[in-house]
Amino acid sequence: MNLPEYTVMTLIGMVVVIVLELLVVRSGIFRRAQYWAALGICLFFQCLVDGWLTKLSNPIVLYNPDEFSGIRFPFDIPIEDFGFGFAMITAVLMLWQRRLNRRSPVAEAADESRADVAGADVAGAGTEEAGNR
Amino acid sequence: MSAYEYLLLMGACVLITLPLELLFQARVYRRWKSALWAIVPVVLVFSVWDVVAIARDHWHYNERFVTGIRLGDLPLEELVFFLVIPLCALLSYEAVGTVLTALRSRWRTGSARSAEGAHGDAAQSHETQQAHEEGRR
Predict the structure, then answer these.
(1) Core vs surface per residue B78-104: b (16+ CB within 10 A) or e
(2) Quick one: which of A79, A82, A100, B26 has the fewest CB in 10 Å?
């Protein structure tokens, strides 16, 4: 089996980010609907932005056909780009969420029991800002 | 103008996500230091990936649509990309958080109201919310 290099780097990137989140950063984003919804939204908009960057009729970024799978979907987007996007988005969200968890444990507690506490965002917001000062 | 096409696309991403900060209370720009703590490591790691990918000819850029400005081997546009896209991701994440919180509050208020025997008016449920909030502190 001889996988193209971009394909390999993408798979490694995805695995590294997942392992970092589960074993090192442990922000808990994978347990949040908030993360999965935001990821879905980001991947949808990636189709538009990346579609524009990679469109074969007038590409801004040109891919070496020997270094990726050759599968372009949707539009002309090399599918590896979505792994790249997943890794980048997940990395930034896990670092952000870890910082929120650390800076304001009260806001985090309120967050986790959002279903019990109406207006938790208001309470959390106050705490967060107090923590920032 | 076309030399700025990539940068303009990134500018469009910033503009399109601005309402998330202003209308959906994402509060990412307001917490810019926290945002930088999350974004900067990602910029560094993915810039290295980009430089390696360019060096190993995984991809290259159409000279017509980029400024040609480079920081070492990294095109300016890619640096901007690694700043803008994570920023958009944070704005989306926080905006989703705002919406989910609102939905859950509404759902809870609704179920509390029916448990009270349907005579909890809006003011009363608001008081209930405040009581919960105070209890939290």
Answers:
(1) bbbbbbbbbbbbbbbbbbbbbebbbeb
(2) A79
Task: Please tell me the distance from the alpha carbon of residue A80 to that of residue A5, in angstroms, as a whole number.
Answer: 11
17-36 of A, contacting B, C-beta below 8 A: 33-35
| Cβ–Cβ gap A88/B82 under 8 Å | yes
Q: Record the pTM.
A: 0.81
Q: Do B89 and A59 touch (CB under 8 A)?
A: no
Digit-coded pLDDT (tens) for B24-54? 999 999 999 999 999 999 999 999 999 999 9
Instruction: For residue B105, give the nearest of A93, A119, A128 by CB distance.
Output: A119
Residue that is written with structure tokens 């806001």 in the block: A107
- The alpha carbon of residue B57 is apart from the nearest alpha carbon of chain A, in Å, by 7
Q: CB of B113 within 8 A of CB of B61?
A: no
What are the distances in angstroms from CA B130 to CA A93, A104, B126?
Answer: 30, 20, 6
The answer for residues whose C-beta is within 8 angstroms of residue B93's C-beta and 6 or more apart is A34, A35, A38, A93, A96
Query: A18-46 pLDDT, tens per residue?
Result: 999 999 999 999 999 999 999 999 999 99
Around Cβ A53, how many Cβ atoms within 10 Å?
23
Which position has the token pair 């609907």?
A33
Top residue of A88, A113, A132, A133 to mutate, by most chain B CBs within 10 Å, is: A88
Yes or no, beta carbons of A117 and B136 under 8 Å apart: yes
* Residue of chain A with shortest Cα separation from B97: A34
